[in-house]
């Protein structure tokens, strides 16, 4: 396994040495958050937490790394510190697979500043990638409604890691399985697939190609029917092979066809009729060919007969929105809340050591709003709760006591350097993610112009922010 300890930006190490030299080891709090949902989506899916933990657990500056850093001019004392580096701080995070919204702290790192700073690049690198792909997968799965989506993108992903972790994230976000064998093996998720055009082309006839495939894989036999002529040759040959299986008394678990070109809606409807007329009502129709949520929505409007969508390039590269944009910002140092000012209001940070609360309607467990609070604040469901918009503060909502439920979104991952979290399997994260989506009203899930979830600040946090803004000469 590659040692990723140096997979960071140089400035993290130069700052770390600076802190080391100045013996500046006060506690810092950093929030990892993002500012906008990808593709104009109504929410995002937080993914990558297990890999964040794996990264921290495996931090190890080898002698070779230290020699390299010495050549770059780092000090011996600092390098000796790195040789024995162990993370000593606290980390809390929302569980992987959670539905999340802009500006919410997804991960909170509280540690001696040198240590907290050293984690920045790797944490962002991991979370930015997986959250982006998980969110794109959620969009595609929404468009597919109750039909399955398979992740087919490895060949066109941005290198091996993007394919491997992208498959993991895609499955968390809503894909039923992946064609990526290593991801399937390592993450315990379903792998599936069909065959390529080359398979058909190496045989003298399409029929012979289908027969041979069916002989090899009678129980999972999806035949690619568009190599020559989908309706004139591909589908009739597939039907012939299914009849032959039937004559042999073979009742496959999964069989059917895959369409990979042409008018997928039209071809699926024609193919469905032909398969049904031949008595193969349970034959599956899969389709692929540069699919994404927009094309799937359009196919749906055309009353397509596709059961399974194979989605590659546009999912694994999140081509419509290629970056998640999460950042890692200091919110407190030496017990004092810190704020980053910007002319762009969206970029002003929320100061202080914070908590993220989610407020659900009592009766149907749908999300009403999220609220960031200061760490020390506590709230009781037995009391009325007033929520207000942090921008348009006159917009308020009062929730009657006992009409809502509060959930603290963060779980403890590290406590004083010790990993205290039970890592869930990808299958569990996937199920949790599905249940998370069910906590959203449909209005937040639509693909275009969704409702914007309210992410409120508590009165105390709002007041602290105003105070720091004023102190920095910003008029509220
Ligand atoms: N009925 C349809 N409605 C909307 N989009 C469709 C429909 N059928 C296919 N598409 C999409 O149109 C695009 C067609 O791509 P392209 O021009 O490469 O054609 P193709 O049929 O796949 O050809 P090729 O033989 O080169 O593979 C794909 O993104 C495909 O998903
Ligand atoms: O279109 P995507 O969403 O990326 O989905 C994956 C594509 O990859 C394969 O094509 P490719 O041309 O690579 O191989 P093939 O010869 O097996 O069709 C497959 O047939 C799909 O068309
Ligand atoms: O199994 C398939 O059909 C497949 C796998 C990867 C890419 N395209 C198709």
Instruction: Give the CATH level 1 class of the largest domain.
Output: Alpha Beta
Task: Domain count, please report it.
Answer: 2
- Shape call: globular
Q: Structural class, please?
A: alpha/beta
Q: What compounds are bound to the protein?
A: adenosine-5'-triphosphate, 1-O-pyrophosphono-5-O-phosphono-alpha-D-ribofuranose, nicotinic acid
Biggest sheet strand line-up: 13-12-1-5-3-19-20
Characterize the quaternary organization of these chains: single chain
Task: Walk me through the structure.
- It comes from Halarsenatibacter silvermanii.
- Residues 6-128 form the Nicotinate phosphoribosyltransferase N-terminal domain.
- Residues 354-465 form the Nicotinate phosphoribosyltransferase C-terminal domain.
- Its EC number is 6.3.4.21.
- GO terms for molecular function: nicotinamide phosphoribosyltransferase activity; nicotinate phosphoribosyltransferase activity.
- With 476 residues, the chain is an alpha/beta fold.
- The chain has 2 domains: 10-133 and 322-471, nicotinate phosphoribosyltransferase, CATH 3.20.140.10; 193-289, TIM Barrel, CATH 3.20.20.70.
- It has 17 helices and 21 strands.
- The chain has helices at residues 10-21, 49-57, 63-71, 76-83, 113-118, 120-144, 160-173, 181-187, 197-201, 206-216, 230-247, 264-277, 293-301, 313-316, 426-437, 442-445, 459-471, and strands spanning 27-33, 44-45, 90-93, 99-100, 107-112, 148-151, 177-178, 220-224, 254-259, 284-287, 308-311, 327-333, 336-337, 354-361, 367-374, 385-388, 396-399, 404-408, 411-415, 418-419, 455-457.
- The strands form 5 sheets. Strands 13-12-1-5-3-19-20 form a 7-stranded antiparallel sheet. Strands 7-6-11-10-9-8 form a 6-stranded parallel sheet. A 4-stranded mixed sheet has the order 18-14-15-21.
- Strand 8, helix 11 and strand 9 form a beta-alpha-beta unit.
- The longest helix has 25 residues, at 120-144.
- It is globular and about 80 Å long.
- The structure holds adenosine-5'-triphosphate, 1-O-pyrophosphono-5-O-phosphono-alpha-D-ribofuranose and nicotinic acid.
- Residues 261-265, 289-291, 295, 298-299, 302 line the site of adenosine-5'-triphosphate.
- Adenosine-5'-triphosphate is lined by residues 261-265, 289-291, 295, 298-299, 302.
